[in-house]
Amino acid sequence: MLQKTSPEIGGMGHSVKRKEDLRFVQGKGTYVDDVHLPGMVYGHMVRSPYAHARILGIRSEEARKLPGVLAVITGQDLEKAGLSWMPTLFHDKQMVLATGKVLFMSQEVAFVVAEDRYTAADAAELVEVDYEDLPVLVDPHRALDADAPVLREDREEKTNHIFHWEVGDQKATERVFQSAPVKAGLDAFFQRCHPAPLETCGCVADYNSATGKLTVWETSQAPHAHRTLFALVAGLPENNIRIIAPDIGGGFGNKVPIYPGYVCAVVASLQLERPVKWIETRSENLQSTGFARDYHMTAEIAAERDGKVKALRVKTLADHGAFNAAAQPSKFPAGLFSICTGSYDFSTAFCEVDGVYTNKAPGGIAYRCSFRVTEAAYLIERAMDVLAQELKMDPAELRLKNFIRSDQFPYQCPLGWNYDSGDYHAAMNLALGKIGYAELRKEQAEKRAKGELMGIGISSFTEIVGAGPAHTFDIVGIKMFDSCEIRIHPTGKAIARMGTKSQGQGHETTFAQIVAQELGIPVADVTVEEGDTDTAPYGLGTYASRSTPTAGAATSMASRKIRDKAKKIAAHLLEVSEEDLEWEPGRFFVKGAPSKAKTIQDIAFAAYTNLPPGLEAGLEAVHYYDPPNLTFPFGTYICVVDIDKGTGEVKVRRFVAVDDCGNIINPMIVEGQIHGGLTEGLAIAFMQEIAYDESGNVQGATFMDYLVPTAVETPTWETDKTCTPSPHHPLGAKGVGESPNVGSPAAFVNAVVDALSHLGVRHIDMPVAPWKIWRILKEKGIAE
Ligand code: CDP
Fold it and tell me: 741 in ligand 1 pocket by Cβ < 6 Å?
C-alpha cells in the first residue's frame, strides 16, 4: 500500500498543476525552432513530385548561383560518404537522398543550404531533376501480382513482399472453426493516418571542428537512441555527439524515427562547419514523415450459439510504403498486433500478417499506440459487434459473457501475452451505469420506430504498454530499460533526470511527484530534466505509453536507493540502529517515539556535512529499470450518436470513458491524457486519412484535406476510472497516454454501425465521413 502524502508534498494521487505550463502559457518554452546560433544557416529539401520515377540527372548550377546559397547536397554526394542509405530498425534500409530512383511522392532528393530560410527554399525550386516516370504501385493488394512493378531494385529478393509473420495455433483454430455453430467476421481497413503534431519535425546541427563535438538540437522522442544510431551509422565517436531534445510540441510517435532531414543537416554542418537548421513545413510533415496504421485486416470469430467465443482467426495485409521503416522495437514484424484477442477469453487463436512495399512514404510508427495495438483493439472490438449482430445479442451482454474474469489474472492469452491484472466487468459495469445504458436502448427503440437514427457503440479494450522487457524488445540490440538519476542537494532540493522525453505529457510534474512520494521532498523542490544526452542517464525515450512503466519505475527505485542511504544517515544522527527507525513521507522517526525524527532535508544536509564513519558523501542514485513484463491497462468506452438523414452527419451526443491504468500519479494529468487521446480518436474515426490517388499523389497533404478537430467538432468527454494496480510495477501504475486513442475508434464506428444496423449495415470503414453514410442512406431509400 502506498502511503498518502500531504498536499504540500504532493506525491501520488495529487492533481498537482503542471510545472511546465508556467513557461508554455507564457510563450517561454524553447522549441527547436527557437534555437538561434551565431552563424547559423538553413537547409531546405528538394522533393520528388513523382511516386515512382527514375532519376536521370540532377542539375544544381542555377541553384548554386543564387546569392546566399552555400551548398546543394545530393544522393551522389552522400554516397561518397557512405551515407546515401541508412538502416531501419526492421532489417531494411532507407534512402537518405534518392539515388537511382524515387519511390514515393515527396521523397527527399537534394538538400539546399543557404544563409537564410527563404533563399534556401527559393534555391530548392531552381534544382532541376530529370525524371522518367515508372509504373506506380498504390494498392497493396496488387503488390504481389505477377505484373506489379518490383519497387526495390536494391534488394536481392525481387519481390514487393517484405515479411510473413504468424503466431498462435493454426491447426487448433481451424478445428474449432470447422465445428463451430456460429462464425462471424469482417474485413476492416484501418486507414493510413498521421499523428500531425502541432510542431513539425526539425533540427539544428552544430559541428564544432575545434572540439570535434557535434551537437544536434532535435525534435526527438528518443535522444539517446538517436545518438547511438548516429554514432553507429556515421562512425562519429559517441562521446562527441550530444543530442538535445528541447521542448517538443507533440510527438505521438512521429518524432521517434531518424529522418533524412536530420542526417542532411548533420552532413551540411560537418561540411560547412556552421550550424545548420532544418525545419519541416506542414505539408512535408504530412507527406513524408512516419505515417501510422495502413492495415487491411480480416477477423473471424468462432462461437457457440449462446455467444461464448471459442476461436479467433486474423489475417492482415500491412502496407509499409517504400521502405520498411516501422519504428517499433519489438521482436515481431507486426509489433504487438498479437494482442488482438483483446479482453476476451478465447481458447485458441491464430494471427498472420504479410507486409508489402508500395509507392508511399515509409513509416509505420506507433501513433499514440504500442506498435499496432490500436489496429488490434479496433479489429477485435469491431468483430465483437459483428458477432453480436449475427447472434442478435446485445453487444454489452456479449462482452460481459466473454470477458477474462478478474480471478483469471495473471492471464495467459492464446497468442502469448501474459496480462498482469484486470477487472473488465467492473469497468464495463461502471460505464454502463454512468451512461444509463438500459434507458438509452429504450430510447433507441422508440426513435427507430419513428424513423430516427441513433446508435450506441461500445469498446472494451485491453492495452499493452511499457516497452519493454528485454526478452521481447530491443533497439539495435540495446535493451529497452529506462532510467532515472536523482541528486539531492545539501539544502534538500533535488534534480532528477530520466532517459525518457516528455512531448506534452507533463513528466516534469509527474516524475517529481514520484520522487515526492518516495522521499517526501515537496514536488516544488524537485526539478525534472530530460532530453539532453550529455546529462541524462541512458534511456530509450518516450512513446507507446512506456514512460510511467519504465522511467516512472526507475524513478521509484532510484528514490528507494536514496532512502536506504538516508536511513543510515538518520540512524547516525539519531544515535539509534537502522532497525529502530520507521519511515513516513518526508522523515525517519524512532519507533515508539515519533518526535525523535530527522527530516529528509536534515538528512540531505548531513550527507554533505555529518556522515557516519565509512559512508561516502552525497545523496544520489541512479537506476536502470528493465520491466519484468508489460502493463495491461484497459477500459470501457461507450459512445452515443445521432445521425442526420439529410446530410449523413454524425453527432456524438455522449461519450463515457472508463479507464483503468492502475495507481494514478496525477489524476488531472491522466484526465488530460484521456481528453487528448479521445479527440485524436474522434479525428481518426470521422475525419482523417492519408489517401493516395492512382498516381501516388498524397491527397491529405495539408490541414485543408487532413482535418484536425477543433473545439467545435469535439464533444464533451465524460471520464471515470477503476483502479487495478499492476502487480509488478513498484508503484502499481500502468501507462495511460495512448489508451484513449487505442480504445476509442471502435466505440465511434460501433455507434454509427449500431445506428444503421437495422438497415442491414455491418461495417463502414474509417474515416466515417458524412458522404459515406449519406450514400448508404440513399441506397436504403431513407436519405432526406
Ligand atoms: O510515455 P508517456 O509519457 O507518453 O505515457 P504514460 O506513461 O502513459 O504517461 C502519460 C502521463 O500520464 C505522464 O505524465 C504520466 O506520469 C501520467 N500518468 C499518471 O499520472 N498515472 C499513471 N498511472 C500513468 C500515467
Answer: no
